[in-house]
Amino acid sequence: MKYELPKLPYAYDALEPFIDARTMEIHHTKHHQTYVTKLNEALTKHPAFAETTAGKPELESLEELLANLSAVPEDIRKAVQNHGGGHYNHSFFWRIMAPNSPTGDLPAQAGEPTGKIADAITKFFGDFAKFKEQFSNAAVSVFGSGWAWLALSEQSESKGLSIITTSNQDNPISQGLKPLLGLDIWEHAYYLKYQNRRSEYIEAWWNVVNWNEVEKLFI
Ligand code: MN
Fold it and tell me: Which of 77, 120, 150, 158 is most enclosed, with most CB atoms within 10 A?
């Protein structure tokens, strides 16, 4: 199978002013595209292995690869981890963001979750403000390039939420966790608008989190 760059579910300028259109366009058409291209290149070296996920929806087959990297032939394992992870993480990232209002006016509760995910966040972190602070601190503290995640452990009887960070394009799936929310903190995600001010990018990003999609992933 060949992986393909997914279309964004909104226009490049839809997340303005929090994430600028130029950053979104380069991030999607250049960075994300490169992960897709390099993942496909790696898999052509092992067509029989690539066939093991043939016919499945893209994200499902990527989840299988990332959940079981030790099953990937050794000479392409790193490429699958990095570029397969890159393709997965970016597809996920586009999905869990959205403009908060079609008119650009933010509702009073912009960036706050509702429903079961809101209840779970309160249960595990105290309240939304505390969760946001912990997540932001984790994201700011990542050394180099990586991601911050809200992840779900489905192993325990009571669904457990945790905040974790990963390096490069690694994903919680490879640790047996399900990602519910993810923030790209590679410089390419914010450098044009925010330069070295990672914490400003993180603060702005909360305004474009699509909590409806996070809720769908959670329940
Ligand atoms: Mn990125």
Answer: 150
